[in-house]
């Protein structure tokens, strides 16, 4: 992938009924970097994240205007194939939702859906993805036990491994550590930093310290608009816009 900007958003507007949730969004998400969206609750962070894999499709009240280009493909074009688009993206929600099956089958589920039925290949995929999320040594002797028996932190890493098993290009995280204890949060953050060598990572977080720890770039969103977008240290140490300054000061003071 030679494109320096894997995701390009152009003149994006999103409406919930009559409410204008996102207003003329224009942003280029750099490839193989971590970009975090920060801002107050209800500002549009999660709404923007959901436009990247068309999670709004299930709601008839949502109207999306503008373009979201992924690898140069307009994912909102009438002929765009949604399954193909979503295969490019692994999604981590605020709380982990492992499938009601074994640890092994959680990882193998995606590859099987896409046609891989070879047991030896699936074994390799399961082991590799569990190693990638630092979970293999913790679960290798109980792969056939229900995933629901894992701790919350382990379940979130399992869900990350499940998403990686279909070989996405992008990892989307919607406050993926909000339900985790500090130790599990640290593990997930460390994984993101390691994984950015292979994936483009886009996070929504309400924790400014977390954005500073893991992000290469930060976008500050307020009232449905991107107020500022810059490299992390530049935005946090020398914010150009008054709204950004006030927001950052509120967390630092």
Topology:
Elements: E1 5-16, E2 19-30, E3 34-38, H1 45-51, E4 62-70, E5 73-74, H2 82-87, E6 89-92, H3 103-113, H4 119-132, H5 136-139, H6 152-164, E7 170-174, H7 182-195, E8 200-204, H8 208-214, E9 217-222, E10 225-231, H9 232-237, H10 242-252
Helix pairs in contact: 3-4, 3-6, 4-6
Q: How would you characterize the overall build of this protein?
A:
This protein is an alpha/beta fold. The protein contains 10 helices and 10 strands. The strands form 2 sheets. Strands 6-7-8-3-9-10 form a 6-stranded mixed sheet, sandwiched between helices. Strands 2-1-4-5 form a 4-stranded antiparallel sheet, covered by helices on one side. Strand 9 and strand 10 form a beta hairpin. Helix 3 packs across helix 4 (119-132), helix 3 packs parallel to helix 6 and helix 4 (119-132) crosses helix 6 (152-164). The longest helix is centred in the middle third of the chain and has 14 residues, at 119-132. The protein is globular, with a radius of gyration of 18 Å. The termini are far apart. The model has no long low-confidence stretch (mean pLDDT 93).
């Amino acid at each position: 992938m030679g494109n320096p900007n894997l995701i390009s958003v152009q003149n994006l507007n999103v409406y919930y009924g009559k409410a204008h949730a996102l207003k003329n969004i224009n942003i280029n998400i750099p490839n193989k970097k971590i970009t975090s969206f920060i801002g107050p609750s209800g500002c549009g962070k999660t709404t923007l994240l959901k436009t990247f894999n068309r999670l709004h499709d299930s709601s008839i009240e949502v109207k999306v205007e503008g373009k979201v280009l992924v690898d140069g493909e307009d994912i909102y074009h009438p002929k765009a194939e949604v399954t193909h688009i979503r295969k490019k993206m692994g999604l981590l929600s605020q709380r982990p939702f492992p499938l009601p099956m074994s640890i092994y089958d959680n990882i193998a589920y995606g590859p099987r859906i896409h046609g891989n039925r070879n047991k030896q290949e699936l074994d390799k995929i399961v082991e590799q993805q569990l190693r990638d999320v630092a979970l293999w040594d913790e679960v290798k002797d109980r792969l056939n036990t229900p995933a629901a028996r894992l701790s919350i932190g382990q379940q979130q890493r399992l869900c990350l491994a499940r998403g990686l098993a279909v070989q996405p290009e992008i990892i989307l995280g919607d406050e993926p550590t909000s339900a985790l204890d500090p130790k599990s949060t640290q593990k997930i953050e460390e994984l993101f930093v390691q994984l950015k060598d292979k994936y483009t990572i886009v996070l929504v977080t309400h924790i400014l310290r977390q954005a500073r720890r893991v992000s290469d770039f930060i976008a500050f969103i307020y009232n449905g608009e991107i107020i500022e977008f810059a490299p992390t240290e530049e935005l946090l140490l020398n914010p150009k816009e008054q709204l950004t300054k006030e927001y950052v000061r509120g967390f630092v003071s």
